Amino acid sequence: MILYLHRQGLPVPAIARRAGVDRKTVRKYIQAGLEPPHYGPRRPRPTLLDAHHAYLRERVAIYPDLSARRLLREMRGFGYAGGYSQLTEFLRDIRPAASVGFERRFETPPGQQARSTSPSFAPTSA
User: Fold this and answer.
1) Rounded distance, CA 23 to CA 20, Å?
2) Do residues 14 and 21 lie in contact, with contact meaning Cβ atoms separated by under 8 Å?
């Protein structure tokens, strides 16, 4: 906040009053020119599933419809001690996208679809 107010052109005493600090403290921060830290994305943490990524990718490539429960049972046989939710999050990223089904449209002119041509529904003239 001190550097922002200094860049706006406020004098040191005015910055000190707004920030509630001493003028010497304001001068110290202006001279240091400290910028706020810029944080980047975090590195992913190692998980119990990391050792099994290759196996899961292979199984999902061959059988994309395998359930996470089935894969979890298989993984437990290999010594996987992690949880189900961790497995489902990984599978969500590696599964192929579901294909959108084909939809056949039925187009009719306005008023034709509701109108029937059978004689029982023919309009009567009164």
Assistant:
1) 9
2) no
Q: What is d(CA 121, CA 68) in angstroms, rounded to the nearest whole number?
A: 54
Cβ 47 vs Cβ 82: under 8 Å? yes
Q: Measured at the alpha carbon of residue 14, what is the angle toward residues 19 and 2, in degrees to the nearest 5?
A: 45
pTM: 0.50
Q: Report yes or no: 73 and 92 within 8 Å, Cβ to Cβ.
A: no
Q: Quick one: tokens of 108?
A: 């009719």
- Crossing angle of helices 68-77 and 53-62, in 10° steps, is 140
Q: What is the dihedral of CA 84, 85, 86, 91, to 10 degrees?
A: 90
- The residue type found at 77 is G
User: Could you report the per-residue pLDDT of 35-77, keeping only the tens digit for each?
Assistant: 666 788 999 889 999 999 999 999 999 998 899 999 999 999 9
Task: State both tokens at 40.
Answer: 């980047």
Can you say how many angstroms the Cα of residue 118 is from the centroid of all Cα atoms in its chain?
A: 54
